[in-house]
Amino acid sequence: MAIDSLVNHQVRLAQRPVGAPTRENWTFTSEPVQEPASGGVLIKTLSLSLDPAMRGWMNDAKSYIPPVGIGEVMRAGGVGKVIASQNPKFAIGDLVSAGLGVQEYLLVAEDQIKRNGVFKINPQLGSISQWLNVLGMPGMTGYFGLLDIGQPKPGETVVVSGAAGAVGQTVGQLARIKGCRVVGIAGGRAKCDWVVNELGFDACIDYKAGNVKAALKEHCPKGVDIYFDNVGGDILDDVLARLARGARIIICGAISQYNNTTPVQGPKNYLSLLVNRARMEGMVVFDYADRFPVAVAELSGYLKDGRMRSREDVVQGLDTFPEALVKLFTGGNFGKLVLQVADA
Amino acid sequence: MAIDSLVNHQVRLAQRPVGAPTRENWTFTSEPVQEPASGGVLIKTLSLSLDPAMRGWMNDAKSYIPPVGIGEVMRAGGVGKVIASQNPKFAIGDLVSAGLGVQEYLLVAEDQIKRNGVFKINPQLGSISQWLNVLGMPGMTGYFGLLDIGQPKPGETVVVSGAAGAVGQTVGQLARIKGCRVVGIAGGRAKCDWVVNELGFDACIDYKAGNVKAALKEHCPKGVDIYFDNVGGDILDDVLARLARGARIIICGAISQYNNTTPVQGPKNYLSLLVNRARMEGMVVFDYADRFPVAVAELSGYLKDGRMRSREDVVQGLDTFPEALVKLFTGGNFGKLVLQVADA
Question: What is the pLDDT of residue B65?
Answer without folding.
Answer: 86
